[in-house]
Structures are given as C-alpha cells and as structure tokens.
Amino acid sequence: EESGVSVRAWHGAVSLRDLMTDGELDPADVLRVAQYELLLGRAGDALSILSDYPLPDSLFSGAPLRVIASALYEKGEYEAAGGLFVRAAGYAPGSGRGVLHARAGEAFERAGRPDAAASQYRVAAAELPAIAGWLAIREARVTHDTARAFALLSQAPAAGRLLASEARGVLHLAYGDTATAIHAMDSAGQSLEAARLAMGINDGDLARRLAYKAVGADDRTAAMAAADFVIRRFPPATVDEYVAVARQLSRFGRQSQAVPLLEKAIAAGDSSVTTLLLLGEAMEGSRRRVAALAVYEKAAGGEGTLAQTAEFRRARALLRLRRRTAAVQALTAFAQRHPEHAAAPLALYLAADVRDDAGRVSEAARLFRMVEDTWPLHRYASRARFRRASRALRRGDTEAAMELYRREAELGGREAAPARFQMARILGKRGDSTAAHREWEALAREDSLGYYGTIAREAGGLPLPNFGLPPVVSPAPEISEALTILDLLDEAGFTREAQLHVEELAGPDGREAAELMDVAEGLIARGRTREAIRLGWRITADVTLNHPRVVRIIFPWPNRRLVEREAREFGLDPFLVVGLIRQESAFDPDATSRAGARGLMQLMPTTADELARRLGVDWSDDLLGVADANMHLGVAHLSALLRHYDGRVIPTLAAYNAGGTPVARWLRFPEANDPFLFVERIPYVETRGYVRTVLRNRAIYEALYGGAVMP
Question: Which has the closest alpha carbon to 260: 249, 251, 252?
Fold first, then answer.
C-alpha cells in the first residue's frame, strides 16, 4: 500500500515517537507506533510501548493482541505467541480468524507443542478452504495419527509436492522406516537431509554419497550448505570429492579454501587440465597470482581447447600483475597460434588496449585492425573499430571515423547502434541536419526501449515514446483465486509455501499472455516485483514489448509516493531515483548482493553507517532492509555524488556502481568530456552496462509516469 504502515515504517516511528514524548498519542497512534517498531525489527520496543500504553484487547478487531503475539514470536517466545494468536482470532472478522489460527499453529509447532499445532491447523483449514491443502501438509507434519497424516498429504496442492515428500519422509522416519524416509527426502531434493538421516542409522557410506550428491545441487545455497557439511563430517578423500567441494567453494568466493583441496587432488594424481584451471582461478581469486602463473603454464602443456584456455589465462594473469610487455607478447602469441579459440579476439584486443594506453598508437592500431580483419563480426572487433574511430575523432579525422562507424553499422555488429549514433552526430556537426535527424528517428524507432534509442531521442529533440494507457481489466477468476491463496499464505507467514505457490502460478506452461499479465500485475501489487519483471520479459515472446500493460510490468513503480518524497527532499529527479532502484534491487527491500550490499538501493553497511552519521540519523544495520530507511540514505548518497561530480549524471552513476576510485581514473580518459564516448569507454563491463541501463530506465519511467507525478 502506498500509504500503508510498511512503506514508511522508519519515518512513522520517528515522527510518532516525537509525539509520544509530548503525551499526545491516541490509541490508534499507540498501536501504529508499536506496529512500526515491530516492522523495524524492534520487537522488544513494540512490547514496551503496549505495556506502557495498554490498549483493550478488542480494539480494532484484536489488533493489540496481534502485535503482542507477533512481537513475542519474533523474540522466540513461541508458546506465549501461539496462545495470544488464538485469543486474537476470537476478535478477528472473516478470513482473519483462519489466518491467526494458522499463525498460532506455526508458533505452537516451533514451541514443540505438536498436538496444539495440529489442532490450530485443523481449525485454520476449516476457516480457510482456499489453502486447506497447504494446511493439511502442516498438520501432517505434527499429528501423531500416522494414518491421518498420510491421508492429509494426499490433499497437498500440486505446488506443494516437494513439501509433501519431505513430510512423508519425516513420517516414515517416525514410523521406523528410515530407508523409505531417506528415499523420500532424496526424491524431494533434500539430499543433505537424507544424508543426515543415513548418519542416524550409522550408514556412513550412504550418508557420504548423499552428502556429495547435495554438493552438486543447482541451488547455490543448498550446495554451499552441503559443502560445509561434508567438510565437517565427511572431509574429501578422493579426487572427485576434492574437486566437487572446491568447485562450490570457488563458486561462493571462498577461493582461499578451495586452493588446498585442489592441491590435494593434484597430489593424489589428478593432473587434468580442468583441475589445474580451477586451481589457477582459485589462486588468482585468493590473490596468489604469481603462483597461478605456474599452474596455468603447466595446464597449457596439455592438449585440447582447455589447454589453450590455460595459455590465455596465463597471459591475462601477466597483465593483471602489470607485466605489460610480457603480457602483450603472450596475448599476441596466443591469438596467432589459436585464432579459432573463443578468447583469441579478446587476447588481441587486450594487447592493443595496453599499447594504446602506453601511447604506442601505431602499434595499437595495427593490433586493433588485426582483430577487425580476423574476426569481423566478433564483439571485440566492434570495440576495436570503436576505439580506432574515437582516436580518429580526437585527431580531427572525421572521414576515417565515419568510415569505421559505417563499416560497423553495415556489418550489424555488437556496436552497430552506437556507431549509428556517432554517424548521426558527425552528420549534424557537418551541417547535414536532415540526414542526422533521419538517423536519430530510425534509431529511436528501432531501439525504442533501449539505451541508444533513448539517447537518440535526446540528441534529436524527439518526444518520449507514447505507450498509451493500459486497459482497465479484471483478472481472470482463476488468477484472482490463485492470488487470494497467495495473500492468505503471506498473511499466515508461510514463506516457503508462498514461494512455491508463486513458482507454480508463474510457471512456464499452460497460460495465455493475458493471464500471465494478470499474474504479473498481481505480483507487483503484492511486492513481488522481481518475479513480475521476469514474467514480463517472458510475456514479450508472445506480445510486443511496447504493449501498455507489458511495459508497465517490466518497468513497475511500487512505493511511488515514497520515491517522490525522498527525491523531492534531496532535490533529485524522481525518474532517476526509480530507474536506479529498478536496476539495483528490482524493488526488493530484502535484496542482498554477493558483496553484502543490501536493500532497495543496495547500500553497503559501512556506507550506510557513514551516511547516517553525516545526516545525524540513529542507525543500525537492521534498517538496511526497511524500505524508507534504506531509500533515505540511498537518495542522500546519490545526491552527495551528484554534488561531487558537479551535477554530471554519468560519472555519478558510475561511482554509485563502482566507487569513486576507478571513476577518478576514468575521468582522465580523453573521452571524459564527451558523455556518450565516456560511457562507451568505461572499462568495467558491469559498470558500463549499469550506467546505460539506469539512463534508459530514467527515460522510460518518465515516458510511462511523467504525465501524472503524484503530489
């Protein structure tokens, strides 16, 4: 909800606490500030408030009881929470009664009160027939009646198959049939849990096999948990085991732990190029680059494509060690020996880049031309043409630049769009405004939702795209029912069940585009924006990207008032802010990056602490997951960067993504004074794409929502 408690929990808590000190709170305000504190993760403060300002249990259909019960639950006092959820259910209207009974059931289950939990799940199922199948799985997990449990599991919804299999495994275990339990767990994708069961019956061989099977799981979190488990319980003892665990450790950025395992695999006789490559990469990842050189050299002595890959990685490692002369020689030799290898164009391009940065322009141009001539359609051939064209422009040779851009456009290479953009700019500077405008229009039309279409519109003074208003439609009855189920699961706190239901709801098969639009819009309304955006892109396989509903699914704007308030407070363009948030987190307040950045605007805890001190804000890292708190600091950070870069958006966005140190270096590039060329020259692929995407997002959000900015 735009004005709901969850959107401005942090702001609301601050403002209402000020009123509390003046004794001006009415019962509704007391309840609201307690709700805010609960949403901020401060369950103890919520309880203190309702202790200091006691409210009648019946107020607002039992809302004080719900808050106290939820706070006790968050504090781990599950039995007391369960009892209060039951009491609150007595005051709740409609489906709220069943939801509270379901919450009571889960609280009692966590408290180790299976009979009480089973009773509450049964009551909830009677109140909430829409999710009775899910509640049946819950009851089956805790009932002592084995026959009833198996009967309940037969009621499980299709999306709950895995949960039902897990529950069957638990039941078989309780019934004494451990072998069947292990099979059920393994079949449900819970190989690690099956391994633990096998340990319980002292079948170490089976446990080991299952644990190492879990290490190879597609799910990253499950695979890493399995890797940690086997390291503790079944340390690797064979070559395959060493490599399997090391691969997962490297996958999660724990290369320093992977290195000794791979060294043991090699010592045990695994001299394969694959393992040597893994070791070299792990050594580089743990900053042992000199040691990695020797490993890559050994791997390069093997046969086949992987040995050639090792040769390339050795050359690239030399470059990272700043041994530039040796690196250029190795990169050039690799490209000439193995022109068919996928990395050959990159190798020669890197060699040219080093020479160009060193001021050896003629040698760089020769190498760039070799890339273009040998692999004319490769992306690095495209980049080579662009580098040579930029150099030609700097020396004032527009004819040479125009010819290179025209060549790229005619080949339809990876840089065809920016080449056409540059051709139009050159035509405009020559005074041929008609031809330039024609090129702007064509590029804007053909890349209507892309970065180059966006900047073509700006350069040509063309209007923003007009997507039209989406039709007012009601979801299909089946979709409405499915979304109601999702609401009930979310309200009951059944997180895993809700996620499985969403996966089934947005499944790849069996729905028409219009139904998928209904699903996606329903997910956006429920804060599941990331899933909705993915679904929106899928819909474009059947419906044009410019469809008024689809484009708003792919570029949604939840919490719009909050974004506009924060942008207004710091004097920023709200379309820039929302475009950045979509790229950073897809509006997921719980998003966490591998580096540890968190929340809507992906702030690092250290950055947030520094910003909070500067703004004089009371802060804790828990607030990074609170939408308005994260956004307040994130917008402040964006505003400070804009001031630092004198209002220049492009270096600001680059610094937001990559930090100020590399941007300071990039601003020394000859292209730094040309915004378009500066973006194209950003060396970090991720940052270059990030800047393009946020700029594109800003333009699309303005086109979609600019006609009716909220007050």
Answer: 249
How far apart CA 329 and CA 200 sit, in angstroms, is 59
What is the DSSP secondary structure assignment for residue 470, as one 8-state letter? P
Residue 204 backbone zone (phi > 0: left; psi -120 to 50: alpha; other: beta): alpha
Is residue 364 classed exposed, middle or buried when 0-12, 13-18 and 19+ CB atoms within 10 A define those classes?
Answer: buried
Show the tokens assigned to 95: 């489906």
257/456 Cα distance (integer angstroms):
49
Q: According to DSSP H, which parts of 234-323 are helical?
A: 239-251, 255-267, 273-285, 289-300, 305-320
Cβ partners under 8 Å of residue 78, min gap 6: 72, 107, 108, 110, 111
Cβ distance 370 to 358 under 8 Å? no
The Cα 96–Cα 661 span in angstroms is 53
- The region that residue 54 occupies, defined by phi over 0 for left and psi between -120 and 50 for alpha, beta otherwise, is beta
Name the amino acid, one letter, at 8: R
Distance separating alpha carbons of residues 598 and 238, to the nearest angstrom: 39
Among all chains, which residue has been given the structure tokens 């020996």? 337
Scan for tokens 């190989």, then name that residue: 191
Q: Sign of dihedral through CA atoms 416, 422, 426, 428? A: positive
pLDDT beneath 70, residues of the chain: 1-7, 18-24, 707-711
What pTM was estimated for this model as a whole?
Answer: 0.86
- What is the pLDDT, as a whole number, of residue 2? 37
What is the rounded distance in angstroms from the CA atom of residue 310 to the CA atom of residue 297?
7
In 3D space, the residue among 514, 524, 583 whose CA is nearest the CA of residue 547 turns out to be 514
The pLDDT value recorded for residue 613 is: 94
C-alpha dist (Å) from residue 443 to 386, 447, 458, 537, 645? 18, 6, 11, 22, 30
Which residues are the active-site residues? 584
Could you report the per-residue pLDDT of 298-336, keeping only the tens digit for each? 999 999 999 999 999 999 999 999 999 999 999 999 999
**Nearest alpha-carbon partner for 695 in 711, 675, 710:** 675
**Segment (H or E) for 179:** helix 178-187
Token readout for 227 is: 């890797």
Q: How far is CA 154 from each of CA 137, 148, 167, 632, 639, rounded to the nearest angstrom?
A: 9, 10, 11, 49, 56
pLDDT on residue 4: 43
Rounded to the nearest integer, the mean pLDDT of the chain is 92
- The token pair at 618 is 């009371």
Q: What pLDDT, on a 0 to 100 scale, did the predictor assign at position 7?
A: 67
CB 169 within 8 A of CB 182: yes
Q: Do 694 and 580 touch, CB atoms closer than 8 A?
A: yes
Q: How far apart are CA 135 and CA 122, in angstroms?
A: 8
274 exposure class (CB count in 10 Å sphere: 0-12, 13-18, 19+): middle
CA distance 397 to 410: 20
Residue 253 token pair: 């950025």
Give the closest residue to 485 by CA, choosing from 523, 456, 521.
523
Q: How far apart are CA 130 and CA 134, in angstroms?
A: 9
298, 327 contact by CB (below 8 A): no
Main-chain dihedrals φ then ψ at residue 129, nearest 5 degrees: -60, -25
Alpha carbons within 13 A on the beta-carbon side of 269? 4
Q: Can you give the three-state secondary structure of 326-363, one letter per residue?
A: HHHHHHHHHHHHCCCCCCHHHHHHHHHHHHHHCCCHHH
349-385 pLDDT, tens digit per residue, is 999 999 998 999 999 999 999 999 999 999 999 999 9
**Nearest CA to 422 among 650, 671, 676, 666?**
676
* CB burial readout 188-204, b (16+ within 10 A) else e: bbbbbbbbbbbbeeebe
Tell me which residue of 312, 301, 234, 240 sits closest to 269, measured CA to CA. 240
